[in-house]
Amino acid sequence: MKQKPDLSFWKLWNLSFGFFGVQIAYSLQNANISRIFATLGADPHTLSFFWVLPPLMGMLVQPIVGTMSDKTWTRFGRRIPYLFVGAAAAVLVMFLLPNAGSLGLTVGAALWFGACALMLLDTSINMAMQPFKMLVGDMVNEQQKAKAYSIQSFLCNAGGLVGFVFPFLFTAVGIANTAEAGVVPDSVIYSFYIGAIILILCVLYTTAKVKEWNPKEYAEYNESFTLDSENEERKEDSAGWLSLLKKAPVAFWQVGLVQFFCWAAFLYMWNYTTGTIGDTVWGTTDVTSEGYQAAGNWTGIVFGVQTLGAVLWAMVLPQFRNMKIAYAFSLLLGAVGFILVPFVTDQYLLFVPFLLIGCAWAAMLAMPFALVTNALQGYGHMGAYLGLFNCTICIPQIIAALLGGTILSLVGSHQYNMMFVAGVSLFIGTLCVFAIKAKK
Asked: Residue 376 falls within a domain, yes or no?
């Protein structure tokens, strides 16, 4: 079997550049979904139910895309067709979702419309996101994978930063940040419009610059993949999802346990940060008020600070000699950050806890895939395995979303108390890191 060739920096960059646009869409969703549904009329105790849809669609879509793309060969590539179709669908939905309150619908109908649009948006984002992980797995050798995933992480965080700050910037240039009851402000609507345009342009760039290997070339670099010499059928050991899970290395499950507590914590952050900041900093929970909508903008800013913290901390992580220590310490910093949030009543001092939360986010983006892809070497079916591993991101969010209203009632109905819940969850994840048996 031939060794995969070294790729230049710009070839590695091109493999992941479309991730910049995809992450803008994902960040706009994460920072504004609670704000949009609260504006449409959702009660805080039912708000978390809308957050079931994104991870549910991710859990369904990513294994399917991974498995199907493992078996797909076209003149446009193996992974890129799924990337392009997912991005095109995401663009369409990004023009629809923020207008749910502007169509003259009743509160109930507007919420249902928004929920369906959110489901379609996350389906398409997940369909566009998964191919980037698999392109690196397919075409990058082991020596360059760390560099490739670092570039991908940089583009992910850069796109996230842009998406988070859009509403704040549009408000700063004079676009309305408030609207009549039940209608999403123009600052949010225009953010989704511009995000959609950037997304499709970035994906078009990647599809134009990246040429995937044909089956013959792919077989030369991957021992688990063979060609039928007579008719050139592509063959990889046939295996269903259950069979793959039974054969999965133990690290796959151990990292998944850590993922459970980490992603539950961040689901509550995305869900309840706007309400928390509105209450603790602006002193209001009235979704029609100027203060609440200002808190919605500031949520994007602190999420951007979190992303900046992740970028900075990502430079520190390689300095740790022990990957598990780096992982655990990062999650511990994030847990402290979550617990500090309810005590901060100054909007600028919120930067401190969110920088700490960014440390956890940096580790969550890098460490799990590094640990799992190392453990999966020689197993084959990389696309299917990475799609299945995505369930360790989705399942905890689904469970956390279903329990969110109940937990909120138990902790006193103040949304800022959910930051304590997130902190405890991340601390448990920190402890679980030490159970991982990783390859050195």
From this structure: yes
